[in-house]
Design goal:
The chain is of the alpha+beta class and 220 residues long. The protein is 51% helix and 11% strand.
Amino acid sequence: MIITRRAFTAALSLTGLGLLAGFSPLRLIMDASAQGASATDVAKPVSLPDMALGPATAIVTITEYASMTCPHCADFNEKVFPKIKSEYIDTNKVRYVFREFPLDIKAAAGSMLARCIAKDDGPKYFAVIDLLFKQQGEWAMKNTAETLTRIGKQAGLTQSQVEDCLKDQALLDKIAADQKFAAEVLKVNSTPTFFINGEMIKGEQSFEEFSKRINSMLKS
């Protein structure tokens, strides 16, 4: 699916995200038909630096592709991720990478704001996306621009800095480029999608499923 400029602009006006009206359409590629990806393909960031928790030397790396407006992603963030963090990330057994795969313009705006607030600070980025997921029902369903602006200000940005962030064409282009790579090369076409040491797992999974896979890799 590709959002046309007309549909893109209309969506912005309806959601109050008029600041983004000059953006190029965000390409949402849902039916990629590329060849299979390797663990090396998954491991390398494309346009934006990876936002990660845990040591780069960890035996197991989990890479999550998520959309900030995805309810399944929010549910996973609330119920499963804290257990993975406590059990494996905080004990330096797992490196956890979060990558943006926005399924709509609101998700793209949320991802952009998180990047602008955190800059290159991984823990701060995870704190922001946690907040966005927890408040998803508010900013994703209504009052999008107003709520994102409030969150930005709470994190220390000024009104003008939030506006500049949401008008950052280069940042949106990088998010779109990374999404395109994920769709075409890694075959990501839904969220959440996970890769554990390069092995794809689609859809929300239980902590027990993650634990089984992680423990198996830690032992091997």
